[in-house]
Structures are given as C-alpha cells and as structure tokens.
Protein 1
Amino acid sequence: MITAGALIETNNVRKAYGSFVALDGVSLSVAAGELVSIVGPNGAGKTTLVNVLTGLLKPTDGVVRFKGRDIAGIGPVKLARRGMARAFQLVHVFPALTVAETIAVAVVSQTGRSLNWFASLRGDSAVRARVREVAEIFGLDTRLAVESRLLSQGEKKLLDIASAFALIPEVILLDEPTSGVSSGDKHAIMRTLVDAARRAGVKAIMLVEHDMDLVAEYSSRIVALQGGKVLADRVPADFFADPEIIAAIVGKRMGKLTRAGG
C-alpha cells in the first residue's frame, strides 16, 4: 500500500547480516515540503537505513519506494536519475580535483553521457554554466580553480552537498553534513543548504544528524531509531518534550530545545 503524498516510503523494512538484525520492521514516509531528521545513538541502524534508502543495500524483507516505485537495491546512480540524490563526498575520493571539476562530475553524470567530465568542463558551455550556477548557490564561485583538498572543512562540506544538488534532485539525503565542522560554521552550512534547496526546487530533505541543536531548529519531523527499530516519529515540539526519548537518543537528559522562530 502506498501512502498518499509520500515521496519516500519504507514499509516494514528489515535488514539482517546473518544473525545480526540492523533494521527491524522500519516503516516511515517523507512527503513534499518536509525536512525529516533521522537520529539515534551509535549502532541504532542509521547508516544501514541510509544505504537502504539510497539503493546501496537491498533489504532482507520489506518494501522501499520512491515516488511509488520500488527502489530496493537499484544503486545511487539509477536513483539519482529518478530524482533522489545523496552527497557524494567526492572531496575525499578525488582530493586533487578542483572545485569546478568536482561539481562537473555530478553535472555530466546526470546527462547520461560518458563521464569524460574534464573534456566536458573545457568544451561544453552548458556544463560550465551549470557548474558556475551551482557553485554560486553555495558561495564557491570564487574557488572554482582551487583543488578541493585545499578548501577549509566547511567549504569541503559545502562542495560535497553542491555535488549532490548538481544532480537536480527532487529529494536529497544528507548524512551528517556538518560533521567535523566547527560549531560556529554548522548553522551557516545548514542555512545555506536549506536556502539552496528552496532555490533549486528540492521537494524534501532527509537529514541524518547527531547535533540536536540543528535537529531542533531545522526539522519538520524527527524519526528516532534505537536498536534498528523506530522509537519515535514526531514533530520537534513533541519529540523534545519527551525526556525519555531524549535520554534514549543522546544517553542523557537535556534541557528543552526550541526551534528558531517557534
């Protein structure tokens, strides 16, 4: 059964590795206009869920759908062409590429042509224009010729996310996009990300994040995992009003958090 209005949906998803069960009966949905955060302690199943949602892993049991179509195990490349993208983290894979070349990898891959991104970047005016457009959205247009390894940690994170946005996704999935970034830069990155999503026409964002301040401020809904199961699926006000859930997720009780402007 497909949930009305759902862009992403899992129904009773289970993922087992032999006797170890990483996901156990996970059901959730994400609709247009939502930023849904996935939270949980280490070992809760967050990474496995992300890999199932992005087609890297096929669930042992259950159904995974994107826009009503089964996407179990199809892989991130095919999934990106259907409209869901995940940050590549190409900075870590190809640190010698410039900012322009890194974004061009994503731009060219979306065209379905061979990944001769270097030739495309030099010879294709449409590719160059798209690369500059994406770089400008993320404030990287003055860094196009800089090797990605020379960027600050915050700029590297923005470049990772920019590469995913270059795929023109309807839904984007971000796995701890601010990890390793200073506290002062985290909110700047999130504000840039959310603004870029609006400008690019992204319909929904899924965010895996451990920073509860960011989760509280930017989420429209929070899904908490514990031991591979869904512990809670609530709007932020209800989520942070329950001290038992907070204690289970962060390992301690914490003061009440409020969203900016709410």
Protein 2
Amino acid sequence: MKNKIFNECCLETLRKLKNNSINCSITSPPYNMNLRIRNGKYCSRQIVKEISTKYENFADNLDIETYNKFHTDVLIELMRVSDLVFYNIQIVTGSKRSVFKMIGDLADYLKDIIVWDKGHAEPSIGSGILNKRTELILVFAKDNAISRRFDNAQFERGGLNDLWYIPAKKVQTEKHKAIFPTKLVQTIIKNFTKENDIIYDPFMGTGTTAVVAKSMNRFYLGSEISKEYCDIANKKIKDKTSMPLFETQNYYPLSLF
C-alpha cells in the first residue's frame, strides 16, 4: 500500500499492515489537552477551542489510563511495521504521566530523544507553571535500540544535533490549530530516510507528512479519523505537486553543548 490516507482509527490501519512494511513513521498525536487537575485529581475540562487544538469537536480529554493504553498500543503496532518511529509529543497536564510511563515501559525500544525548540512559548494558563517552549520527539526502534547509531542515517558524522531550533510558524486552519511545521518533517525525512521509502503518519491531520514525503520523492501512507481532514489532506497533496525539497536547518552550534 502506498500513497493513500485511510479515513479510520490508526489501529485499524495498522492491523492491515505487514511486519516491516514501513520505513519510517512520523506523527504528532493529540496531546490530551482537556484533561485537567482539580484538587489533586484528574478531571475533564469542558471543550473550548483555545485548548482543544487538533479537532474542533474532539474532546481531547481521555482519562489518563485510557490515553496511556491507546498510545502504547499505537506505538507497539508502529514498531511492528516500521523501522523507525518519530513520536512528537508535548508534556502537558493531560499527557505527562502517560509520556513518562511510556518512556519507562518502552525503554528497551527508545533509541533517542530529540528536543524541538519552537523559538517561543505561549504564556502558561496558570501561575507557578513553566512555559512550554519545547516539545519532545521520542525516537523508537524495535531493532538495535540499545545503540545510539542510526544504521540508515543520511547525515555526516557530527552533522546533526539532538536539539532542533524550528520556529513554530502560524500555519493553521480555523479547525486545526496544531499543524506541525513542514521543516520538522523535512528534517526527519532528509536525515533518516532514503528516496522511495514509505513514510506513515497514524494521525495525518491535514496532510503535512504526506505533502512533504511526496515532495521529497518518498511514498506516503496515513490514517485520519476526520473525513473533513482527509479531504483537506488529499486536496493539499493534489495541489502542492512541487515545493522546496529542504529548507536549510539552523541548528545550535555543537560548541554550546
């Protein structure tokens, strides 16, 4: 299967895929933004557009156990079908315990962690809380994760840091306010995949991963539960038949670290 977006839950798509059929998975799943804490206990926040960023009518407030099981199941399936998995996540109230637990439970498959510096942070919604200027990209591999070496690395020795400065541009739609930057996907594809590789995004959204993969001579595959987003993504793929293959990345100098 190549160059197709399935309008369904990603677990349904993943169960159709054969072992080792994907070269690289790249995604940014919902962050569970509307699960809050009140009096020391989790509680669901009423959905509001300013907080729920991925879908207009998606509550994004799973209880922490359900959220953790779903994403753990997705990651296990992704590792079954993919050589590498790049899972972009922000540490927020509704995801924090789950992310830390997944890092522990899947430690044998966690190859590295990349820090994405977005260049600025929105002010925290409460006092005594750190502003979030960074997000994490958890890199999983089912084979040889114990080693820090990427066997299919396309970058030269000393040529890529684990801190990526990629400003979060205001590229969004009225309904989807969490589109991750084109440059972030370009950076992963350029440095960790080859031409004609298959790139899969289990939370395709409005199609950024597919558009970038196609523009860089890779095949794409995706899953997206929103029919509206599938239509937007397919239109973008059709319309954007050409774009710059790669924007020069401004990494922090190695001497800083």
Protein 3
Amino acid sequence: MRDVTVQRAGVPVLRGVDWRVDVADRWVILGPNGSGKTTLLQVAGARLWPTAGTVEILGARLGTVDVRTLRPRVALVSGSVTRQLRADLAARDVVVSGRHGALETWWNRYTEKDWEKADALLALGGVGDLGDRPFGVISEGERQQVLLARALMSDPELLLLDEPFAGLDLGARERLLVRLTAVAADPASPPTVLVTHHCEEIPLGFTHGGLVSGGRLVASGPLPEVVTSARVSACFGVAVTVGCGDGRWWSRAV
C-alpha cells in the first residue's frame, strides 16, 4: 500500500497508509476499537477499494485487475464469513467449500482428495471428530479452528485473520495460538496478517508488527521494535508495560 486513504460518508477511516508485506512475513496488527484495523484488512484482501492511493496485491494493482480472479487467492477469516455460512452446514462441508471460496458444497464438485484434505486440516486443528456436526452448534473455539481450516483449504497466497480470538475462553485461545504457531513455522504457509487487540494473542513465530491509531499506521516493522511499552501505550492511550518471555508477549497497565 502506498499513501492509502479510505473515506466513508466523507469521514477518513484510513489516512495515508504506507505498508508492505513480503512473502515470508507473519504480521500482527494491533490497535484500539475503531482505529481502522478491519478496514486495513479489507483493503489488503481486495474487499474494499481505497479512496486514494495505490494497492498492489500478489502482483496485481487494484483498479487494473478483475478482483474475481484475485480474491480467491486471498483467504480471509472474519466474523463476516461466519455470518454468511448456514448454521446447519456440517463442519466438514464448511472446510471443503473453502476450496472454491463457496458458501455451499453443491455449488461445486469436490474430489476424494479434497475431502481427505478437509479432514486432515480439521485434525490438525484438533477438531477432527467434529466433521459431521453442524457449524452452528459447535463452540466458538471449535468454530475458529474450522474457519482456519477452511481458509487453508484453498492453498491461499495470502492469509488474513480478523480478530480470530474474539470471544474465546482461555483454553480455546491457547489451542488456536498453538495452531497459528504451527502455521507460522511452516515455510509453505503464505504471508499472514493477524488483527487483534491483545499482545497475549501474538503467536510464536510472528515476525512483524503494526500499530494502528486514528486510521494511521503509526508504527510498523520487526516485532520487537514495534511492540514496545512506549509505542503500545501511545497507540492505545493508556500507560502499559509490554514484555516478552519464552516467545510469548504480555501487557499490563502501569
């Protein structure tokens, strides 16, 4: 992104953002509610056009490419996807439908290898026994594992995760962190961007950080240089101490 601005009803939501994600990067984007994090992810996923500036995604510039060919190359895990999926759809069907970015399995045909891959991804997320259960009745933590499996089903070239830890209890959060740590460590995984509110939700192996405040990307770069007490305090408007031990981050009020 170069000098990207997004306005809604004349109000700037993003302001002059310059940002680059490289092939091997694993990014975490932190910032308070309403700061523009989700909008940033929507632009990165070719789901939203900027009002001004230049956006290039996977070698294609927005405005010069048919986004119908670009969007399937970008996997997005967000609450908007959850709301679009039919509640009585089996978890296994939710995952395999991600092969074509569909919402129903009857929209496309799937091979035996597709179904085997869906089962394997569920197993990697620790929810392999939930394949036949309706998506709408499994727990929030299980649902996030299913959505991550769905996102990986298409072998995406870019993986975007919008607040996947929202609403999770301690156990579900830690299980998802373990899974995302494995994804980050896999050299075959695509560049990944995770949006969250909490330093404790940064998985091991993530390499870069960005802080968003008031629609601006106020800091970005290698994780240890960005996620500091001074910078996080300024971003959230509250004095906090930030630390890291054994690869896990934490923050607490001063």
